[in-house]
Specification:
The chain is an alpha+beta fold. Helices cover 56% and strands 13% of the residues. It has one domain (11-80). It has a 3-stranded antiparallel beta sheet.
Length: 85
Amino acid sequence: MDEMPNQHQVTISVPEAGRRLGIGRNTAYEAARQGQLPTLRIGKRLVVPLVAFEQMLAVQSKSQIVAAELMRRLQREGADKPEPA
């Protein structure tokens, strides 16, 4: 049931999303429950829309890049300042 999606598939299972994130099944369902993983409920089934999942990853990646650049700038500015005597 949890196979790699084909190019026409628009959703993946919560366990598959977990595998892609490198987290376990239970952690993936907990992330879904807490709203950290985008999901849709279709009947009794909980699925992850691929578009929303990929956007979530892109936003997270961009946030990490911005944070890393900010840290580099702060470290450079700190290195440029003379130490107090």
